[in-house]
Structure formats: structure tokens, C-alpha cells
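This part of the workshop introduces the protein records we will be handling. Getting from the letters to the C-alpha cells is the skill we practise here. The record below serves as our worked example for the rest of this section.

…
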Amino acid sequence: MAERRGSGAFGLDGHKLPVGFLCLAWGVLVGIGILGRLWQPVYGVSPLIGIGLCAGALFANRFVAASVPVIALAASNLALPGGGSYGSWTMAAIIYAAFTWPVLMGSLVRRSHVWGALGGALAGSLVFYLTTNFAHWWLTADYPHTASGLVECYVAALPFYRWTPVGDLVWSLGLTSGLAFVPALARRFRGVEVA
């Protein structure tokens, strides 16, 4: 059977998946995001980039897809020390936006599974590193507001960034591999809804 045009490497089409299945998938992705963020074997190794990529590949509605990392981040912040205090609303908005950005790359995952997941994970890591450290440099007095101060800020953040790309790659590849099972699971779910 020929693959439907535009459905991608997995045969995913967010418009064709049962609503109940999409609700369940939304809850599973949010749950993975919360639990994975609370259990970080090494600082910066969390599933937030991976769940954003999966949500972008699964959900036709970008707002629904973006709600996955946003809700996971907000809910996990409640359980972490400091309650997710970012120092300012501006910094919080930049952090949330950086974790939402991978949703936009979900179509890459849908079209070319492994390469889309690899590229999306690495791009997500880099965007998070660049935007959040730029914001820290700009919004605080920790570094001089000069080019050398910005470089100093980025260099000081490298030890925190060390494991982030590795974690993002592992989580993203693991989670997006699960997308291969979505069409079969959705068919079974549709059968349960009809019965």
C-alpha cells in the first residue's frame, strides 16, 4: 500500500489519529517529561526536548503540541527546590520558549525519523544553551554587558551544558522511536472506541 502523501516516515497524520488516542499520547508525553525531569541522573539530562519533538510530530495543532513541554516544565517545577524560580518573568518566558521551540521541528521527525530526531535534538540543545545564557547575561549583573562579558557567560555555562546534548539525543531518539508504533496503536484504539 502506498504511503499517504505528507504522512511522513511513520505514516503519522495528526488529523487522522483518534482524538482519544491523542489525549492519551498527550498525557503520556507530559508524564514522561515530568518524571524524566525530576529524575535527572546528571544535571541537564531531561526529556523536555524529546517530548517537544514527539509532540510536534504527533499533533496537528501547534498549540496543543506546545502545551506538552510547557505543562511538563511547569508541573515538574512545583516539585523541584525553589519551585522553578527563574529570577524574573522574562527569564522564565525565555526558558519556556526554548523548551517549546522543538515542537516546530516535529515535522522534520515526521518526514525523516532518525535524521530529524538527531537534528532536532542537537538544535534544541544549542538553542536552549544560546538563548538562556544570552538572557542570563542580559538580565543580570553577573557579567559585564560587553562582548567579552557575553563570551565569559557562555564559557562559564559550558560545564552545565556538557551532558545536555547527550541527554537530548538519547531521550529524543528513544522517544521518537516510539512513534513507529503509533499507527498500529491508533488502529487498536480506534477499534476499542468503535466496540
Q: What stands out?
A: The CA atoms of residues 144 and 150 lie 8 Å apart. Confidence is low (pLDDT under 50) at residues 1-7. Residues 19-185 form a domain with the Arp2/3 complex 21 kDa subunit ARPC3 fold (CATH 1.10.1760). The first helix runs from residue 19 to 38.
